[in-house]
């Protein structure tokens, strides 16, 4: 399924080819029949392939095969092929390649975290590059993770920066939040074990442990397990494929991470040649 509209894809092409392809046009090869093939240089989880294919089509080419987002491929596997005039394929080539490389990088990192902690939900934050949310969310889902929160409008997450403005006990404002938004979970970010236990006793539904090590996460899980309504203990901040298993073993059923958004793009080889 495409998450970028034709208008958005047109804008990407316009940024890269604002006044024509000077090199291809000057060489006089724009009308020559050509073919194009995208191949994985290394193991990766594909994302954004549908948008890449549509970019080739928008540029004037014809796509003959494309593997869907979420597909895991090994090095050397072709995943998008097409043909058309050389000028059309040159116009769509780099934008399509770059888009699928960045999206597949996100999807591949998300998949590695998911695989490192089987049975645990991996949720990615909204801290994607501004303006790239639609494709970033698609890549996260392609990797097998979920979104933590898409924006401020959908969930209640009380940060220390919110609590600085509050007076009264946690029990009071948590109860007030329940009256104002009875269908929502109350999530509280904490950065100490003592605060986590206090907010759990006050009625928080989810404790988001900010940059606390797995042993502290385990201490919170054990200290709150006996409450009438034990909270979900979520590890957040610094969660990666290297420590995901440790947080899962500590008893955290939810891992909140930004790691998939930051890293190298996937490496994609493109062959564009005469047909």
Automatic annotation (TrEMBL):
InterPro entries: Aldolase_TIM, ModD, NadC/ModD, Nicotinate_pribotase-like_C, Quinolinate_PRibosylTase_N_sf, Quinolinate_PRibosylTrfase_C, Quinolinate_PRibosylTrfase_N
GO terms (BP aspect): NAD+ biosynthetic process; quinolinate catabolic process
Taxonomy, superkingdom: Bacteria
A GO molecular function held by the record: nicotinate-nucleotide diphosphorylase (carboxylating) activity
Positions of the Quinolinate phosphoribosyl transferase C-terminal domain: 106-258
GO CC annotations, alphabetized: cytoplasm
Keyword Glycosyltransferase among record annotations: yes
Pfam family, one: QRPTase_C
Keywords linked to the UniProt accession: Glycosyltransferase, Transferase
Domain Quinolinate phosphoribosyl transferase N-terminal: 21-104
Family: Belongs to the NadC/ModD family.
PANTHER family from the UniProt entry: NICOTINATE-NUCLEOTIDE PYROPHOSPHORYLASE [CARBOXYLATING], PYROPHOSPHORYLASE MODD-RELATED
Name of this chain's protein: Putative pyrophosphorylase ModD
UniProt organism field: Azospirillum brasilense
Underlying gene: modD
């Amino acid at each position: 399924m495409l998450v970028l509209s034709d208008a958005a894809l047109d804008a990407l092409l316009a940024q890269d080819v604002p006044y024509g392809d000077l090199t291809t046009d000057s060489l006089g090869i724009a009308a020559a029949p050509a073919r194009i093939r995208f191949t994985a240089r290394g193991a990766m989880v594909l994302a954004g392939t549908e948008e890449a294919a549509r970019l080739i089509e928008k540029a004037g080419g014809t796509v003959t095969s494309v593997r869907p987002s979420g597909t895991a491929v090994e090095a050397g596997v072709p995943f998008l092929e097409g043909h058309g005039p050389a000028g059309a394929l040159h116009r769509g080539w780099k934008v399509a390649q770059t888009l699928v490389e960045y999206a597949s990088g996100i999807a591949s990192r998300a998949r590695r975290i998911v695989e490192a902690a089987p049975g645990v939900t991996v949720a990615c934050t909204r801290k994607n590059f501004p303006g790239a949310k639609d494709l970033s969310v698609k890549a996260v889902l392609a990797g097998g993770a979920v979104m933590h929160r898409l924006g401020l409008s959908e969930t209640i997450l009380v940060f220390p920066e919110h609590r600085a403005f509050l007076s009264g006990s946690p029990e009071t404002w948590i109860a007030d939040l329940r009256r104002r938004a009875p269908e929502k979970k109350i999530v509280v970010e904490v950065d100490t074990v003592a605060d986590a236990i206090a907010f759990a006793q006050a009625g928080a539904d989810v404790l988001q442990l900010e940059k606390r090590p797995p042993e502290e996460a385990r201490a919170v899980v054990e200290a709150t397990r006996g409450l009438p309504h034990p909270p979900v203990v979520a590890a957040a901040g610094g969660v990666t494929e290297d420590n995901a298993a440790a947080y899962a073993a500590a008893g955290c059923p939810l891992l909140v991470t930004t790691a998939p958004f930051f890293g190298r793009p996937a490496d994609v080889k493109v062959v564009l040649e005469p047909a």
